[in-house]
Write a structure and sequence with these properties.
Shape: elongated
Low-confidence stretches: none
Strand content: under 5%
CATH class of one domain: Mainly Alpha
Helix content: over 70%
Largest sheet: none
Order of helices and strands: HHHHHHHHHHHHHHHHHHHHHH
Length: 427
């Protein structure tokens, strides 16, 4: 059964009913639970969707790609006071009674010692209950009360931030991106900062067309994962995340030797894909860096040679560009696509020179291109026009005539001959 061509309409995490924070074992266990529930014989569509989601998440590279293209739900609420939560439900009535009994006629803030700690314990339970039952405002009220009594309660700080995260996630799923952006900002303001929340913020900004804000967030995402990778340099998932972000953003944040530092040198395939992504985004400098890395890993890759040629041409390294294309032609002399790169390269460079009125060099480029395609009408017209602008009307007429030999009705060539005769004083 082929699952590779299946396009998911939901996040793979939603399909497997797990959070982004699930570990490899949890993902695997959940997958086996679901395939038992959805037998492929009776539920073929559901099974394919589940299998596709699992295939995406079991490999670091595909999981990383999914993680930067989808909004992340909040981490689970912290609940060390209630280790069996949420499997073991909390009783709101019981928790309130505990607080009432402990406080008596006093306010919780007036208590000291063990009674105070027991009240805080019950308040944490109420906050968890409210958050778990979709009452974030009530949950936040209790967590703020807890923090007023114990500012060093790190779990309550994180849980308070998680309420904003969950609300932002729900808003994003409903395409209320302006609201999700504000809520994700609240998460940061409450001190919960990691790569995932910055990805959420980046995506929210992108969806609203806020390019500058999104760019800043992506930079922060990269910095966050780079710091994590320093502490855990062998983590394949972190490496894949960094590569995936570079691909997604077209490599615009690659500078200097950053490709090697970000783990791109460990895989020619990753560097090649990144280079292509940079080209698609028009980030030519970064494309050069990535494709040079790919070429070092596989010197015989003709496709990389051809694309590197374009990256060089668009960074004003013309000699290197044509060297790449000629090298590709030597390695694959029978591939017409390779000579097409040379023809287009010479043509584009020739047009640039012609526009700058560097006519003699422009002629050289057009003639080089014609060696590979002598009957190319557009090239002949460029050559003729260059001669015309040089006021070499005799040579211009010859080229226009060659166009007419191929296309007798070509209006541009006919007009060119008439103008050349008139301006050159010829009959």
């Amino acid at each position: 059964m082929d699952t590779h061509t299946t396009v998911l309409t939901r996040s793979p995490y939603q399909i497997l009913k797990i959070t982004r924070w699930a570990g490899d074992n949890e993902i695997k266990e959940r997958y086996f639970q679901l395939v038992k529930q959805y037998n492929p014989e009776y539920f073929p569509d559901e099974f394919i969707e589940i299998r596709t989601a699992y295939d995406l998440l079991k490999e670091p590279s595909s999981r990383a790609t999914a993680d930067i293209e989808n909004f992340a739900a909040s981490p689970p609420y912290y609940h060390s006071d209630f280790p069996d939560f949420p499997q073991q439900t909390l009783s709101l009535f019981k928790l309130n009674q505990e607080i009432k009994t402990l406080c008596g006629d006093h306010e919780p803030e007036q208590l000291k010692g063990e009674p105070r700690e027991q009240v805080l314990h019950s308040m944490r339970g109420i906050a968890l209950y409210q958050a778990f039952h979709g009452n974030p405002d009530e949950a936040r009220t209790f967590w703020r009360h807890i923090l007023a009594m114990n500012p060093d309660d790190s779990e309550s700080k994180k849980n308070l931030a998680c309420t904003f995260w969950n609300e932002g996630f729900e808003a994003a799923l409903q395409e209320r991106y302006d609201e999700s952006e504000k809520l994700f900002q609240q998460v940061l303001e409450h001190g919960l900062k990691n790569g995932a929340i910055y990805i959420n913020l980046s995506l929210s900004c992108e969806k609203q067309g806020k390019k500058a804000e999104a760019d800043e967030c992506w930079k922060t995402v990269l910095d966050s994962y780079r710091q994590e990778l320093k502490s855990n340099p062998d983590n394949k998932y972190l490496q894949a995340l960094i590569v995936a972000i570079h691909k997604y953003t077209g490599g615009k944040y690659l500078e200097g030797n950053q490709s090697a530092a970000d783990g791109l040198g460990s895989s020619a395939g990753s560097a090649k894909e990144l280079g292509y992504a940079c080209i698609q985004k028009g980030n030519w400098k970064q494309a050069v860096e990535a494709l040079e890395q790919a070429l070092r890993e596989n010197e015989g890759d003709v496709d990389v040679l051809c694309q590197l040629g374009w990256a060089y041409l668009n960074t004003n390294q013309q000699n290197r560009a044509f060297h790449m294309w000629n090298l590709a032609l030597k390695k694959a002399p029978g591939r017409s696509q390779v000579s097409d790169h040379l023809i287009r390269g010479y043509t584009i460079f020739g047009k640039r020179l012609k526009d700058q009125r560097i006519f003699n060099q422009a002629l050289v480029q057009f003639k080089n291109a014609l060696k590979y395609d002598p009957d190319n009408v557009d090239l002949r017209l460029h050559l003729a026009d260059t001669f015309f602008q040089m006021r070499n009307f005799s040579a211009a007429m010859q080229e226009y005539q060659r166009v007419l030999d191929v296309e007798p009705r070509n209006k541009v060539a006919r007009q060119g001959i008439r103008e050349s005769k008139r301006l050159g004083g010829m009959r």
